[in-house]
Amino acid sequence: MRNGSIILALLAALVVALGTSAQAAIITVPDPLPAGGQYRLAFVTNSKANIKTILMSDYNTFVTDAAEAVSELDALGTTWTCIGSVPGTNAKTNTQTDPDVHGTGVPIYNLAGLLVSADYPNLWDGAIDNPINMTELGNNYYPGGDTYRVATGTNGNGTTHAKSLGGTYSNGQVACANGSNWLVGWGTYDSTRYVYGMSGIIGSSPGGAIPEPSSLVVFGVGLLSLAVFTRRPRRRR
User: Higher pLDDT residue, 210 or 172?
Assistant: First the structure.
């Protein structure tokens, strides 16, 4: 009975842990995998970046630090870049998604597992399939559809907007995301705003291996197996 009580207590703790983490769950492997097994991920940052800087490297560092602070994203072993434009650098160049340079590319998903764009041309055709509305922490950032606080400095075709990140522009405004219509709006300027991040190519070569199941899931399966084994009926002599 003692062993059974211990197993049940461990299972109860697992249920609590899974319930606690459910609100912050992110999906790093789309289901089903796209043809070819390669894909990219995109997210909106949970914290605000300084959008006064004109250095693209500062934005890339910001989204990289945000992603790598999350174990599931860090485990992917990929690079992270900002979906944003500064004077002299287009977003499609910074993220290496320019169809004229990088070809058709691979599908892009948000951290809820939903398809954002089937390929690079689709990403920059003015609309996306699903909004990038999940943060690296698993929060639905704008459930009401308000995306104007996400600064991009980018036109719908991936080029630098007149109201770019770090730029000088009139009316105190910066180009921002606008829901499924993607990058066609702008909002009132302030010194900090949320930004978008995108991974490098994930999957079979090039880009690294498909990530393994999380340790929490493996731990849970192990506990369940142990519980079943422990509670097997004994044979009567």
Answer: 172
